[in-house]
Design brief:
7 strands, binds magnesium ion, binds guanosine-5'-diphosphate, 256 residues, alpha/beta, 49% helix, Rossmann fold
């Protein structure tokens, strides 16, 4: 099951604040290690407090949000934006340090404020660095709070698609916190696209049509269309997560 490629694989973990990125990097990394994979860890969140893993590269060595607040006399929001821009100046340094990580499988934790990483320049810049070193793939972690109704699932897949477009990297949307209950309808819609389409047709107004059309478009253009459920706390779903990441890497599986 665990094959090794010649070049480094980077699994870049993205997602909204609080979705469980940092927890997942720690627990998925331990899960891989317990199966004999030598895992490297990268923290790119300058605002991180506690990390449940030992980073091989930690952006906080160069940039800390609390220091940026003081140095530039900024509030938290301004300091996060400034930190994102300061990261850009560290490109060569980051490249040199990432190349030296002695693992072929590297998990990359990203800033809580996903939009700063994706919509400013540091995200695309970082992905460019990773592509010079090896093969990045993005997993986009969502909280089940964002999956109350079937059209929410379409919105989540669409967000992952936007990330794919913006960062030019294959992205895999996943629903974390599988221990938190979701409605039966949403759970069945996750399993079966026909159920999803049928559920969408019952939603009100323009949203139903829009969501159904988006599903069609994403089926045509995305590699991974199924939404994997995992729990970063219990480790449930990690087998499936590993498989889907692997399928995207080798572009060989049936992901629908
Ligand atoms: N119930 C539950 N909570 C989780 C899970 N994964 C993470 N969390 C919690 O979600 C919160 C945010 O997690 P964190 O990893 O810091 O999110 P990040 O901001 O995306 O890095 C923490 O309180 C975690 O304990 C999970 O699988 N289940
Ligand atoms: Mg985090």
């Amino acid at each position: 099951m665990f094959e090794f490629l010649l070049s480094k694989q980077f699994v870049v973990v993205l997602g909204p604040a609080g979705s469980g990125k940092t927890t997942l990097v720690g627990s998925y990394g331990r899960w891989l290690e317990s199966r004999g994979v030598k895992v490297g860890y990268v923290n790119l969140d300058p605002g991180a407090d506690y990390l449940p893993y030992k980073p091989d590269f930690d952006i906080r060595k160069y940039i800390r949000v609390t220091d940026v607040m003081k140095k530039y006399n900024l509030g938290p929001n301004g300091a996060f934006i400034k930190s994102a821009d300061l990261m850009l100046e560290l490109g060569d340094q980051i490249y040199r340090e990432l190349v030296r990580i002695p693992s072929d499988y590297v998990l990359v934790d990203t800033p809580g404020q996903m939009e700063l990483f994706v919509f400013r320049e540091n995200g695309p810049e970082l992905l460019g660095i990773l592509k010079r070193i090896g093969f990045p793939v993005a997993i986009v972690v969502f909280d089940p709070l964002l999956a109350k109704k079937p059209s929410d699932l379409v919105a989540l897949k669409l967000m992952a698609t936007v990330i794919q477009l913006r960062l030019d990297v294959d992205s895999i949307p996943i629903l974390n916190k599988a221990d938190v209950e979701i409605s039966d309808e949403v759970a069945r819609s996750l399993e079966e696209e026909l159920v999803l389409m049928e559920a969408l047709s019952r939603e009100a107004g323009v949203r139903a049509d829009l969501a159904q059309s988006l599903v069609q478009v994403m089926d045509d253009y995305r590699q991974a269309t199924r939404l994997v459920r995992v729990s970063a706390l219990s480790g449930s779903g990690f087998d499936e997560l590993y498989d889907i990441i692997h399928e995207v890497y080798c572009n060989c599986g049936d992901l629908t």
